[in-house]
Amino acid sequence: MIGRSLAITLWRVFALVNVALALLGTVLPVLPTVPFLIVAAWAGSRGWPRLETWLIEHPRHGPAIRRWRDDGAVPRRAKWLASTMMVISALTLAMMSVPLWTKLAAPSMMAIVAIWLWTRPDA
């Protein structure tokens, strides 16, 4: 069994990696921001309460994290944006020279994610 301090360190590293990915998502249109912040807040709750508090009180992203925590809610605009990006990705993949199984598997997974996403309550 790992020691408590090592576990806290691992939770903190995991939280920081997700914050870093969220920061990348602010400049890369294909990388989402809020889902990484939700994971970072979750990891922070296990090893870095001050980071968790900072994230859920953040003026821009805090409300989305709280809506997810409280109701599992996703704003309709985010659903449309994610769905549009998935369609664009699937169409781009269809035009690439990749194996057929990739052309079928990736859009199938995207469809499953889209169905799941649209079953979440609106924020």
Low-confidence stretches: none
Q: Measured on Cα atoms, how large is the radius of gyration?
A: 17 Å
- The fraction of residues assigned to DSSP E strands is under 5%
- How confident overall, as mean pLDDT? 93
How many extended strands? 0
Structure description:
- The protein folds into 2 domains: 4-71, no CATH class; 76-118, no CATH class.
- It has 123 residues and is mainly alpha-helical.
- It contains 6 helices and no strands.
- The chain is 76% helix and 0% strand.
Describe how the helices and strands are arranged.
Layout: H1 4-25, H2 34-47, H3 49-56, H4 62-71, H5 76-95, H6 100-118
Helix pairs in contact: 1-2, 2-3, 2-4, 5-6
In short:
With 123 residues, the chain is mainly α.
List keywords for this structure.
2 domains; 76% helix; 123 residues; mainly alpha
